[in-house]
Amino acid sequence: MSIFVDERTTVVVQGLTGGQGRFHGLRNRDYGTKIVGGITPGKGGTDVEGVPVFDTVAEAVDATGAVASFVVVPPRFACDAILEAAAAGISFIVCITEGIPAQDEASAYNRLVREFPGTRLLGPNCPGIISPGKTNIGITSGDIALAGGPVGIVSRSGTLTYQALHELSQQGVGQTTCVGIGGDPVPGTNFIDCLEAFEADPDTKAVMMIGEIGGSEEERAAEYIGAHMTKPVVAYVAGVTAPPGRKMGHAGAIISGSQGTAQAKMEALDAAGVVVTANPTEAGEKMVEIVRGLS
Amino acid sequence: MDLYEYQGKQYFARFGIPTSPGGTADTVDEAVEQAEDAGYPVVVKAQVKVGGRGKAGGIKLAANPGEVRQAAEAILGMDIKGHTVHRLWVEHASDIEKEYYASFTLDRPAKLHLGMLSAAGGVEIEEVAATKPEAIARLHINPLDGLDEETARRWVDEAGLDEAARDGAAQVLVRLYHCFVEGDCDLAEINPLILTTEGSVHALDAKVTLDENATFRHPEWEEFAGTDTEDPREKMAKEKGLNYIGLDGTVGIIANGAGLAMSTLDVVNQVGGSAANFLDIGGGANAAVMTAALEVINSDPAVRSILVNIFGGITRVDDVANGVIQALASVEIRSPIVLRLDGTNAEAGRALLAPHLSDRVLAEPTMLSAARRAVELAR
After folding, report:
1. Nearest chain B Cα to A257, which residue?
2. Which among B44, B111, B253, B305 is least buried, having the fewest CB atoms inside 10 angstroms?
3. Ordered domains of chain A (ranges, CATH)
4. Residue A258 pLDDT greater than 60, yes or no
């Protein structure tokens, strides 16, 4: 099984006619994802390589019955796109847009919570979600994933998500689902949401978690793991050598004082029984050992 | 982007937050002029983006032109925790009755705005938070609801501010909240917020961090550009639109994505090397970005080898390869380059680079092996 999405999930791409939307939307379709439509205001009635384009998400949902949306639009339009999808009844939204103002993100998140509690947002600023062999919604290169499980991956960093997939696939260890939650300050979906889903998924036997400096999501995840997870978890936290007080790219990756340092996060995870590793390669190796021990 | 105190105060003024009359000075003569305008006594304050200015001697009181001269001479050029003072802020000295603390930021776990207000201001608020958390009145605000004057007034009561300060403080808080939201701040902080002996409430300091993601809707931020770093490498990177932080090692790092870039720093460190920088070329980087990145790294005299660690997602490896090829053709790269390329269009990227590989341009199959090679070459 996979979490959140599967081979039946029907997806519309908001921004399909743009450069990135077209490239990644069609690449998702080639992977096997059910891309049933695209949305670009003013371009309704046209198509992108056979994928019909609509003016609004509501029209696209009416015509195609889509349940998920892939938002790939510039930062200043992204939050409106997310809210439009939610209002049209989309229940799972993946937003890969990087560079959305934090104030907009906080407002959009709280609007979803208040007005559309049935909608799950993944991202923004995330690589998306891939359930190998079933569906790929986002910008992950499908060929680095391996179908068949038994590992679930959840990661805050986009490129480290790829690195994690790569480390496992190269060793012949497959994944049930790989979720990139994104490194922005207000992620729609957090570690705990994914850990909970992986714990409940019978096909997922172990979880790899990739964190990074800043915020307290890893510490909260550690608390959850300690109290609720029965499946083994391997973790890596990026940024051990990051100088304190500097902002390293992600709005999320800010260290202040001792809170949010890689060291503090690793200690919290270790105390919760997680196998904490020093780099992505070691995380892959430890996970391979665990998976081999399962069978 | 962190603002200097004077920039923060100017930003506050846009939102009607009262501050003391004053102005900036880059020379001793300018300091005296500003003091004459502000009215004696004045406070002469070093403009550096680091805490502990007062303890370092970067803040001095002056009652007449002679004292201003003396203070300005002492502070200009002073080194405060590695930051050289190039600019002063000279303002009229306030008669302080009480010092408070006020700030707005985003509470990430709660996903709500968080206001913090304390009657115990003027000191390290982190120390207050650690030793006397009850002295800080916290207010969570849903961004959809905002902060009205009535709620601000109740909050001021709860924080136990002096009766004489309550109306004024409530008004400042509502304005500071507008500054935080409409001004797209990651942090808007006043420490201390003061009650003067005349009974007015105003900001004696300003700590403002702007959210650079919102730059597109703030043309007025143009004036802050170029003032946020002294590191020439960082200045050059900023001009080229790169996300670069200068460090003091010898291995130049170029990676895509903040996570992978941080991880590359970690791995270089683990195999016995040290990074000269953090550089995230971001998602969807093209050949021009890659060329610019190599130019910035190349300008750093401390760099002995360059490690390019790319795992393509939205970034396409063939674009990265083209950038490297263009850079090799247009700039004389002083240091050997070690490349690790995986992900979207990796095969195409490796094929493009194959004819350019040499003992100066090397390809490695994994992140770890690439880091080892780069560290060896930096020795």
Report:
1. B126
2. B111
3. 10-122 (3.40.50.720), 141-294 (3.40.50.261)
4. no
